[in-house]
Sequence to fold (766 residues):
Amino acid sequence: MIITMAKSAGFCFGVKRAIRLALEAAADGNVSSLGPLIHNQREVERLSKLGICPAADMNEIKEDTVIIRSHGVPPEVKEELKRRDLKIIDATCPFVKKAQHIAAESRKEADMVVIVGDKDHPEVIGLVGFAGEKGFVINDLEDAMNHRYHGTVAILSQTTYSLAGFESVVEYIKSEAERVIVYHTICKATAERQKEAAAIAKEVDVVLVVGGKNSANTGKLAQIAANNGAKTAVIESVSDIDFNIFNGAEKIGITAGASTPDWIIGEVLEKMKEDSVVMDEKVLNEMEAAEAVESEVTEEAAAAEAEAEEIVEAATEPEAEEVIAPAEEAVEEAPAEEAPAEEAPAEEVSAEEAPAEEVSAEEAPTEEAPAEEESMAGAYAAFSKDVAIVRRGERLTGTIIKVSDSELMVDIGAKSEGIIPRSELNPAEAEQITELFHEGDSVEVIVMRRENEDGHPVLSKRRVDADLAWEKLAKAMEDGDILEGKVIDVVKGGLLVNVGLKGFVPASLVETSYVGNLEKYKDQDIKFKVLECDKNHNKLILSRKAYLEAEKAAKAAKVWEEIEKDQVRHGTVQRLTTFGAFIDLDGVDGLLHVSQMAWYRVNHPSEILNIGDEIDVYILNVDKENQKISLGLKQLIPDPWSLVPEKYPLNAIVEAKVVRTATFGAFVQLEPGVEGLVHISQLAWGRVAKTEDAVKPGDIVNVKVLGFDLDSKKISLSIKETLERPEPEKSEEPVEEKKPKKEEELHSYAPKEDDQITIADMIKED
Ligand code: F3S
Fold:
């Protein structure tokens, strides 16, 4: 099978120039491009890794510098960018600029300004902006027939429009309008590419058009190839190749749109080789030659740009552009400075024609392999080698061959060794360059410049490290992984953390609750989750709070798995309410109701607990379905009434505190939760008219235990029995001991709510 590769396949100079300008700008930090820089998604992704971030519209521009792509923009868009005080890198292709200028000038003199092209294409939108209210877009001949033309009609086209299509529209308008001025604004590169595609299509069975499916010029190439009789397929990458299309085909043609990078074309060639499509050596050598030409892209673009600038200047001269024609056949062709080349013959070379001298010594065929195949492989290897080395932005692995204080010299398989300047290492590595790097070490790098003044490719390890860090962080974000890093600074609003890159933890995401002073985190290693990872906008937001919450959730799951009724667990007082306290049991909160805190009445949880206290609690109940846990505290200490017989036996004399007085006696507290009654008759040996005459609340008195009833939790006590009985006065009648009127009065000393003493009182007592 013979393959014919179009010489003009791949990036046009306008696209190369735009990419060059963007990469130069991105060397100083990320930049935005207003719209994707080119119509090729994979290349756009590659460029975004190099800091060229596409913004769908002006409102999405996040960087201070904006690139206007080769398609150009309407004048009002550029004005708005200026108004927003953005640094503008105008990468509008000079050929497009020329068309814009023509559109603007035509607006002054013509009655109608026809732009032949796709009305939705950004270049055409820009041209309409320059043509103003007189501009309108004609899509094709059919569309042209649906319009009426009056006065002077200026006609120009999208730079990538098909020449034949443009000519057909022009012919039609000539037949309809009074006066026509035609401007040939199809760019030379496009015209050549299209002519070449047509020529190849006539000679081959199948044409592969490599390019973005939303690229206008790729679409035009496919259309042209199909119109010229070839079976045609548009592929964006190798994975799109359907090899069935080659069934029965002997000759294959390959071309590519202006937005197709050479590395994608290279991948297609390689894949075809793998799948036994015989490559022609001469074609490959031509590809090598094309690569060599590409290495001079800067000069070529500069020359072409200068040429185009001249064209623009010529276009600004009204005499040269605007030709007034006679009324009847008033048709004039504006000077066609960029007239397409006469013929751009496609290259078609059979294997037999490949001259032997084109094969280098290393590429010489071996005895085992057929000469044709070997020489082809050698040529292809040379092609691949060049591709790998000279491409800016390419990521490669090399071997360190020399280490010095100022740089590393790296063998990347190129003719010249690459240089990693100290500045392209991470700062920490740059400090210890001779300690950390050694000859023979493998190192991954990105090509920053194809060559420096000494002819060495300039490489960066720092950017690879950054790329790897972004990749790692993006994956960690996707997987919800927990990472660790050191806090390197405390700034307004949060923490800066070193994670290979500088990540930001907003103050609100440092803890699960508000933290006022963040200084304590400085130089600490902290764990976090990645919340936002946007390399294009250099945005890396971390959350320690998310890590803490995740950790708490994991602990909680374990607790729910293990917790059972009647267990005793350790917890921390989290929150106090009027009805109880919430206790954190390692990630799960349980409620300790106020009634379960002590054997005596507790008015408020704060009487016995403080937030942050660590306590043991008894699990009263677990409702896993509704995730509720009831806790008790008093269950962990004995009921004081159960100890009464032991601690307060009959006739024992103990100290007590008067807590309340009543008409029939005084209530005294033996200990929290245990109170008894001293009947009025037991207050003193003499007659006591009123309880308050003998005691008052708060008095500490000695009492003697007269009796107790554990079931009804009652104790009868006597103060009198602890006192010495006075001698009776002889002159007086013996004092009759007053008995309680009713039995129940003796025992009606159940504590009332307001009889309770506070915990503070108890502590004081202790
Ligand atoms: Fe390319 Fe400029 Fe032509 S961008 S296709 S050289 S108009």
The first strand starts at residue 2 and ends at 5.
